Amino acid sequence: MRRIVILNTAVNDTNLGNKIIMEAVYLWLRTVFRSDFIYEVPALEYLTVGRALVVNADYVFLGGTNLLSSNMRETSEWRVRYKDTLWLNDVILMGVGWWQYEDIPPTTCSRLLLSRVLTKRFIHSVRDSYTAKKLRSMGFKAVSTGCPTIWGLNSEHCSLIRTKRAENVLLTFTEYNQSPRYDKLLFDILRKNYSKIYFWPQMFGDYRYAKSICGNNIVFVDPSIEALDDLLKTQPIDYVGTRLHAGIRALQHKQRTIIVGIDNRAIEMRKDFNLPVIARGDIPNELEKWINSCWKTEIYIPEKEIGEWCRQFTV
Fold first, then answer.
1. Tens of pLDDT along 253-283?
2. What confidence score (pLDDT) does residue 315 get?
3. In CATH, what number is assigned to the domain containing residue 76?
4. How far apart, in whole angstroms, are the C-alpha atoms of residue 123 and residue 305?
5. Pair type for strands 219-220 and 142-144
6. The CATH number of the domain where 205 resides is what?
7. What pLDDT digit, counting tens, does each position of 216-225 carry?
8. How high does pLDDT run on average in the chain?
9. How confident is the model at residue 215 (pLDDT cuts 50, 70, 90)?
10. Among 124, 154, 128, 149, CA closest to 28
11. Is there a single domain that holds both residue 65 and residue 184?
């Protein structure tokens, strides 16, 4: 019997998308470590009480979000210092991605930090090929598995997703990546093509921004994963929005989904796994065609890479 620790990126965080990610991280790790104890400690604050759990763990996993960057001090939310690597080391990545597209190489400090805190004994699971390439350039073993939230979206699952437009739609915007021009156009297209538009705020600022774009022409869903799930379970509904993990949640519920890609996360997952993503700049010419055409959701799940990553803990 072993002790497993998850560095949880949903604790002390304002983005409900990380709860969706961490739920998947826990569920998939539970399939690997069925007979073991699994503990969780926060990743977005400096560890004090949770330090003993980490020190005594057999494995420590960092659950996926975009925590890696070329400048860990300035652009990563992962609260880890060089002195912490005296006791926090051999960390294994699970679906973690790179912060943004970056042409600059990692700083010397970032290289030193990552070389101390991340394992070189095991293969890392990362969100996309872009992240895998970055890690391999620093001497780590990494496979592109996608975020654990998509691991269950296999061909059997996707075959149950509608191919035609629903009557109603679920919309999301992103408070930290706004484009009033394109977001207003997105809303106008949805208003033209759907009877009712629901809106789910994944972060606090999403609500006010949606009001400024949509006025009183949307129905707000309560800001919780439970409320989102209730909506996705109760009716056929399309998802069209800029929130990646709200879209993945819709796919988990077998709902037809069009994710509007606004950063490297969605764009890279479209390239690697055929996630149904349209670039924000393609909204004027492509979105209405997507909405009104008949198409199958066909997501590529890298089962070989996922299996390779999981098996290293069972041998």
1. 999 999 999 999 999 999 999 999 999 999 9
2. 63
3. 3.40.50
4. 10
5. unpaired
6. 3.40.50.2000
7. 999 999 999 9
8. 96
9. very high
10. 149
11. no
Q: Work out whether the CA dihedral 27, 33, 38, 40 comes out positive or negative.
A: negative
Candidates 291, 279, 100, 106; CA nearest to 197 is 291
Q: How many domains does the structure of the chain reveal? A: 2
Sheet bearing 91-96, strands edge to edge: 37-42, 3-8, 59-63, 91-96, 124-126, 142-144
Instruction: Tell me the C-alpha distance between 242 and 173, whole Å.
Output: 5
124 with 255, same domain: the answer is no
Give the distance, in angstroms, between the CA of residue 23 and the centroid of all CA atoms in the same chain: 11
List the domain range (segments joined by +) for residue 76.
3-151+303-311
User: Per DSSP, which regions of the chain are E strands?
Assistant: 3-8, 37-42, 59-63, 91-96, 124-126, 142-144, 168-172, 196-199, 219-220, 237-241, 257-261, 277-279
The pTM is what? 0.96
Chain segment 94-132, per-residue pLDDT in tens: 999 999 999 899 999 999 999 999 999 999 999 999 999
Give the closest residue to 298 by CA, choosing from 246, 256, 245, 262.
Answer: 256
Q: Is residue 297 part of a domain?
A: no
- How distant, in Å, are the alpha carbons of 149, 191, 199, 294 from that of 240? 18, 12, 10, 15
The position carrying tokens 């869903």 is 221
170 and 254 within one domain? yes
Q: Are residues 118 and 179 in the same domain?
A: no
